[in-house]
Amino acid sequence: MSWRRSFALLLFAPVAACAQGVALxxxxxxxxxxxxxxxxxxxxxxxxxxPYENGYYNHRYxxxxxxxxxxxxxxxxxxxxxxxxxxxPVVPVPGDWNSQDERYFxxxxxxxxxxxxEAAARDGRHYxxxxxxxxxAAQVWLNGRYLxxxxxxxxxxxxxxxxALVDGENFVVVKVDNxxxxxxxxxxxxxxxxxxxxxxxxxxxxxxxxHVADYRFVLADDGSVAGWVRVGGVAGAQAVSISxxxxxxxxxxRPGADGVATFRLDARxxxxxxxxxxxxxxxxxxxxxQVTDRIGFRTIETRGEDILLNGRPIFLRGISIHEEALGRExxxxxxxxxxxxLEAAIELGCNFVxxxxxxxxxxxxxxxxxxxxxxxxEIPVYWTIDFNSDAVYRKAERQLDEMIxxxxxxxxxxxxxxxxxxxxxxxxFDFIGRLxxxxxxxxxxxxxxxxxxxxxxxxxxxxxxxxxxxVIDVIGINSYCGWYGDLPAxxxxxxxxxxxxxxxxxxxxxxxxLAGRHGDAAARWTEEYQADVYRHNLAMVDHMTALRGLSPWxxxxxxxxxRPLPGIQDYWNRKGLVDxxxxxxxxxxxxxxxxxxxxxxxx
Length: 603
Ligand code: GCB
Prior knowledge:
Layout: H1 3-12, E1 38-40, E2 43-49, E3 90-93, E4 110-119, E5 125-131, E6 137-142, E7 145-151, E8 157-160, E9 168-177, E10 202-208, E11 211-219, E12 225-232, E13 240-244, E14 249-253, E15 260-265, E16 280-286, E17 289-295, E18 300-303, E19 306-309, E20 312-313, E21 316-321, H2 335-347, E22 352-355, H3 362-371, E23 374-378, H4 390-407, E24 413-420, H5 426-442, E25 447-452, E26 456-457, E27 461-464, E28 474-478, H6 488-491, E29 495-498, E30 504-508, H7 527-541, E31 547-550, E32 558-559, E33 572-573, H8 586-598
Bound molecules: (2S,3S,4S,5R)-3,4,5-trihydroxy-6-oxo-oxane-2-carboxylic acid (GCB).
């Protein structure tokens, strides 16, 4: 039995009939990094674009001892140094490089990031360099000292600065490489832009040597609050305090030698829901540190073909979203970006969003908690990743760990999605089955899903028979009736069959339209065609007896290298309900009206 499993049993042994695991994640990340003391390293960074990795390898293609990471300056006028960060171009962080400068638009490869900063390195403090994400592979040096590497473009990572940090001026160099490779997650082929760079917040976090490292709060089966706290630094010496002031609940517990303390609070929180997204201030204290978070409590489960939120059936009125900003180019990363995207979903009548196809930034999840949107969160196990490779499996599992470690306290997340549109094979069944088991082991308080595009089809019916349906709790179906096959008018007559007795979500459907292009409903790319596809698909879903929600594709047009059609696509996937500047297409109103009519089906 693994340490993690035995921990889960230990935590819940006293909880009557609690079969839910909330085990400690493998990923060791400071919980709630944005609320910690420290300094933001967002802002202007200097960059060197390095397609040949000249800053890393010498002319024999051997790693250099004094690559760009030492940020050398000529010692004398005679000294030859062929780069200079201080006079190199500036790129804002957070930000993808592609949308900063036309020359970087299609670039895939290595870019070196450099930033100098002032820090007060005080004794007895623990300093951590935290990155919200870097796409895809990152290596980090502080004052020329190597701190470590991370792979995976959408999850956080961090390194203890240790004694590499000095009192006064410091510099950090990050090598970010977004080359696509067959053995990555995702792999070489996706339908989204491969934005490179330091795409999310960067912070130098400053916590006491004895500090709160991580914590998890869950609603226990008896309606009270339970969980665990992991401390860093000196463990066992002092007690951990946990309180929810608004519920008058407080307890103190001593961590074990492993730094972990489990707790139960005699509290009866009101349930979080889209109709009432109530969040509580929770305070976790250890030694000199107090971390405050805002956490909601709710239950989610399935019963036959129903999804129950807080014990009541709910219908998920959703929309899919890529992590691209509304109203400007490039990756979304800020709280304001998150608010704009999620408020647009609410205006559409949604109570649910599918955050496709990778973990979005933390602001999105916190904003969903605040605004009352249920969330489908997913890892980029997309299309044809190499299901036969154990190394690839470990990369996928790592990203799952990091996502769950970061987000497991967010009430909004109800679905962990393991994969999108993966082709049927035994290797894929084992791979995704292992991921699902791993997700349940880490977090048994949510449902597991995957988006499938592998139904048996004929002109009049679709049979949900992908073997993966047996493994997941909720079956996601991506189906483009009226766009990639069939005529829109045929969709309403399509009938869907499933013998799994599980809820189904239509996780994608849609069609492309250029905003402002009008014409016949039979003409591709017109708003009329797209609206027609929506009308007929919405008529179809009314006959899907197991359907408990939908998240059509997609809120906003998004960048994709697979979409070159001049004058129409110009490297935008045009299936958005709004275009890149926020202009609403006719289909927006079709879906909004449908959701208005269904608003009473549980909220
Ligand atoms: C899909 C994929 C999504 C694509 C979409 C499309 O099925 O899941 O990533 O962008 O179709 O537009 O074709």
